[in-house]
From TrEMBL:
Gene3D superfamilies named among the record's database cross-references: Aspartate Aminotransferase, domain 1 (3.90.1150.10), Type I PLP-dependent aspartate aminotransferase-like (Major domain) (3.40.640.10)
Superkingdom of the source species: Bacteria
Protein name as annotated: Tryptophanase
Alphabetical list of SUPFAM superfamilies matching this protein: PLP-dependent transferases
């Protein structure tokens, strides 16, 4: 995005694109939203999109495509085997990452399923800067466990540390000592880190981790799903990257890793996924599983139209104008909320704006799912749909007890290039109103609790009549506004 100085002294990001296609949105009156959230079991995953005004649930598969992506979808080559479309994507991947081999999969977790099956044996450990929900589920399903080796400051809500996603090398050394290198299935770097606020990883840290892994013969795996945002921050915050092109940074990173996988629902702004590597041995071990779980090697469960869109989308990821809108809008939102005294994760990261539900609702214990309650409350007062990233998103311990999350967050994703500044301002306005009436917000309890990934379809109920009181207060303050 262009670095524009405004004569007025104001400061806000300026888009380097224009809107070509629009989609109509609905904003229901609060009474109807009250019914909708009740029917959804107070789980924002279960809301119907037609009842949502701003869908800030996720950045997955909902990023705006470019005109060039849309155009490419019309010339896709549909065939089971040997599709020209596939080879186009393969060439782009080889060019961007500099790797020899590419294997397609239908989305990020499909890669994780296969990687876990290939590398994780019962009793082994996957060391990572921070887990992602689906990653952890696949690792544990294969009998492994996750060890998080983030730095001490990674979980500080308020911070000015530029790379909170970095791995703590001392923790990694200690883990290797304790477990023995052969018990570590792989080290996984998630760049950027989804669950701790889209915080980036530095290139320097990746280099150090690579050296340590190399020395002990431990494979290094990069989850590049959120790489676009991470690259933006490398370029902006890391001195050695300032004079490198995005292409150079990407290639340097890739050169440090044995295996790279990504969700193309995020990276490349389409829908799909894939893995790339230089080692023929790793390629062959993974290849056999692709045909079993995903499809033939030249589509891997993806539509060829999406493959075309990914190829163009990945190319466009190498353009600073194309990847800046998300992080810059997020920074605007975070800075506005900080100014109003609202607890959010700082510094601003990628993916979205993360409200600290623990500090927003200090009167709720973690057993009352404060982040889930805040998600339901914000939808109620605004029609904005966020995602709980707290205790609800954890799995219970083996003995059935709650596993309380490190952070209770409400994530408000800003899908790339989707929302306008006035929509972001509307969301800020309603968050400020809710913060001023936070004492009214009560907790949630489970009515129906699935065993695996319970946050997706679990149903909850408010622990009191707090939602009715919130609606009444809204009417008192805002009259007959929607
Ligand atoms: C979204 C995401 C995944 C999973 O990708 P899907 O395409 O949703 O299956 C894995 N890792 C990270 C860091 C993600 O953000």
């Amino acid at each position: 995005m262009a670095d524009i100085k405004f004569y007025s002294g104001e400061s806000f990001p300026l888009e380097m694109h224009k809107v070509c296609i629009v989609q109509k949105l609905n904003l229901l009156p609060i009474e109807q939203r009250r019914i909708a959230i009740d029917e959804a079991g107070n789980n924002t995953f279960l809301l119907k999109n037609r009842d949502v005004y701003l869908d800030m649930l996720t950045d997955s598969g909902v990023n705006a495509m470019s005109d060039r992506q849309q155009a490419a979808m019309l010339v896709a080559d549909d065939s089971y085997a040997g599709s020209e479309t596939f080879f186009r994507l393969e060439r782009v991947i080889q060019d961007i990452f500099g790797t020899r081999f590419f294997l397609p999969a239908h989305q990020g977790r499909a890669c994780e399923n296969i990687i876990a099956q290939v590398f994780v044996k019962p009793g082994t450990v996957v060391a990572t800067n921070y887990h992602f929900t689906t990653t952890k589920a696949h690792v544990t399903l294969n009998g492994g466990s996750i060890e998080e080796i983030y730095k001490a400051d990674a979980l500080e809500i308020t911070s000015d540390k530029p790379f909170k996603g970095d791995i703590d090398l001392e923790k990694l050394r200690a883990l290797i000592q304790r477990q023995g290198a052969e018990q570590i299935a792989f080290v996984r770097i998630e760049a950027g880190t989804n669950l701790i606020g889209g915080q980036p990883v530095s290139l320097a840290n990746m280099r150090d981790v690579h050296q340590l892994c190399q020395k002990h013969g431990i494979p290094l795996v990069l989850d590049a799903s959120l790489l676009a945002d991470n690259l933006y921050f490398n370029k902006l915050r890391e001195p050695e990257c300032r004079d490198m092109s995005l292409r150079e940074i990407t290639r340097t990173m890739a050169g440090l890793c044995d295996l790279i996988y990504f969700s193309a629902r995020k990276l490349g702004c389409a829908r799909g996924g894939g893995m790339c590597m230089n080692s023929e041995e790793i390629y062959k071990r993974i290849r056999d599983k692709i045909v079993l779980y995903e499809g033939f090697l030249t589509y891997g469960g993806m539509s060829v139209r999406e493959i075309e869109a990914i190829a163009v989308g990945l190319e466009e990821t190498m353009d600073m104008d194309m990847i800046s809108q998300g992080p810059q809008f997020i920074r605007f939102m975070v800075e506005q909320l900080v100014e109003k005294g609202i607890p959010v994760i700082t510094p601003p990261g990628g993916l979205g704006c993360h409200l600290d539900a623990g500090a927003f609702l200090p009167h709720l214990s973690q057993a009352q799912y404060p982040a889930g309650a805040l998600a339901a409350a914000l939808y109620l007062v605004s029609g904005v749909r966020g995602m709980e990233r707290g205790t609800l998103s954890e799995q219970r311990n083996a003995d059935g007890s709650e596993r309380y999350s490190d952070m209770e967050l409400l994530r408000l994703a800003l899908p790339r290039r989707v929302f306008t500044m006035s929509q972001v301002k509307y969301a800020i306005d309603r968050i400020v109103w809710l913060y001023e009436h936070r004492a009214l917000v009560g907790g949630l309890r489970f009515v129906e609790e699935p065993e695996l990934l319970r946050f997706f379809f679990g149903r909850l109920a408010p622990t009191s009549d707090w939602q009715d009181r919130l609606v009444a207060q809204f009417r008192t303050d805002l009259g007959d506004s929607l």
